[in-house]
Amino acid sequence: MGKNILKRLIDNLSGADLRRVRKDPMEIMGMEHPSEAAQLYVVRQNPEMIQFIGTPSEKVQLEVVRKDASLIMLLDAPSEKVQLEAVRKDTGVFLYINKPTEKVKSEVLKSDSGQIIYMDNPSGNLQMQAVESDCGSIIFIEHPTEKVQIRAVTADPELFIYIGSPTEKVRYAAVSACADNIMYISRPSEKLQISAVSQDCETVRYIEEPCEKAVIVALKENPGLDAGLHLVITSEWENVKWRPLTHCPSLTDENGYFYPMMGANPAYPGQSVMENKWDIKEVEQEFRAQIEMTLKNIPQLSHMTGHMLSTGFTKEVNELVLRLAKEYNLPSIDRMDSPEDYRFTYIGYDGPSRTSAEKEESFIRSLNKLEAGKRYLFLDHPALDNEEMRTVFHIGYEQVALDRQGVTDLLTSPRVKQVIEDKGIKLISINQLTKGLPRSTASKKLEKAMEKYLDAVQKANQDLHSIMIVQHGNVLAEKWIGEGKEDEPHILSSVSKTFTASAVGLLISEGRLKLTDKVISFFPDKLPANVSENLKAMTIRDLLTMTCGHDTAPSVNTQATETPVKDWVEQFLAHPVEHKPGTFFAYNSLGTYMLSAIVQKVTGEKLVDYLYPRLFRPLGIVNVKWQESPQGINCGGWGLYLKTEDLAKMGQLFLQKGKWNDRQVLSEEWIAETSARANGANGQYILVIPEKDAVIAVTAHIGDMQVELDLIWKYLLPAL
Q1: pLDDT per residue as tens digits for the range 396-412
Q2: Is residue 663 within 8 Å of residue 618, measured between CB atoms?
Q3: pTM of the model
């Protein structure tokens, strides 16, 4: 009974409030606790009237923000429900909300991640929500967490520049996402440097003082760069001293350091190699140690030089270095007789060269005096005028850093580059200088034949990329067309098989492989459940001759994306072998892949790495690229990239029965077993023509390869 009375009393009061505001809505201003009904009536007439209601109910607040979300600015303490209603209607009103809740902030960010700029000290969860919606929103976060920073730079590496004081983890994420980010990091750690150059070797230029490991990685990733070994038996700098790699007391002082000078110097009395009784045997052992350590880390090493004439201060040392150069296939370009051996002339500065400006002017004068048809070598020491280099000096040569910065300025000078371009000066690598095929002038007959051949190629719509003609060991004609570039490797398709077969020949000559070795013996863990008798009988010879016994050759999907990726060796071994090996031919690229896998199994090295010191370095072939299977094995039967001259060198090696510079690179017996022609899909050829003592190398993208051969036979062969 009491509750009913109270309800009627409240209803009467509410009714009174309602009657008053119906007469005049402004009456609500004088009401201390207006009824909800009165509040609702007023705000329905005019939502802005809520500002005159002291403590509007939640229902009233909702009524108002549903009509106009911006009116939440008139509410001192809107409930979470009201806040949510408002921001769902218009996220822009978030600015007007006093003390928004975490849930409300999250709701706003769902629609507009940029609103985080208006949130004071947003939580880690809110930050992550914002950057996951739009990674660019991190620029609006004053103090993003480490996880948020990593998430942002992983999604968009360019955002790294907007992050102040990033942690090492954030830096690593940024560099991993984009190697170029290394340029924004002062004194990057070794880990960061290696991460950057492993992705893109050219990023090493952004590192002011790259560590040794990063430089090695950069060189390995870009084998086309010249990388020379500077042999040293002196330690000239005052506060940077070197010890030998071996025990050579005749070359060291009482502290075990190399002597500072090669020849007598009044500033260092008695502290030169030549003032002491040096031992040629110790010189040899030390040079060998330096060479072998460098080759271990930089297999594409292209040449040797000597610090302060270390390689040529006497005839005896000169002869030693020449012998080592031949043994390791590393030309020494600063021996006394190097200019004669490699047909070049040394050039230096023509005039003063102390300052950067003087160096530039002097060098340009030298360039203007160069003669057409000759080869020149300029030698100087570029470096940076930085903290590290400023520690380097000796008495009489104190401004080393400044001097060598001048050399760097010279070599990067736009003026120098322009002179080189204007005069048509061709820059070549040390490898080209010392190991390039010699050039000679073609006969008039061959010149005319070449013109007719190229016209015929054009008329036949042959997409020829390059051709090089070598006769008697000299390049007589060469041409690059369309996509063909002299200094860029070209896809060789099945010509790759010739190089894989050469690796097998080398392993056989080393006694590490036999033609009769059974294929299954190398992969006991990859065999199918049932090994057929024919599969058991398959040998290395069968892989080489493509007589594995398959009725149809096995193949793999080179673009496969399945997980886990199928093992190519397992797929080959699982393929039915219908015929007795050695009795049935079927073209089989995957069989050559198996040879690559066997080379890697036997040597512990990838095919390309095994060939480098045995074939590529002797022939001066650099910048070798070879595609790999998902299992990290070079494809073998395809996927090799080489330059046109590299193909010509390989042909010349076969023409010379495996001999190169008086060294038997491939055995004569192996050469006799192989073909006089290597060809790959779309017109890649190495043609060896013994009766003409000639080699023709061709790259192209041609469907009808017979037409290509017919044109060569019709126009070029008669002119040789």
Answers
A1: 999 999 999 999 999 99
A2: yes
A3: 0.76
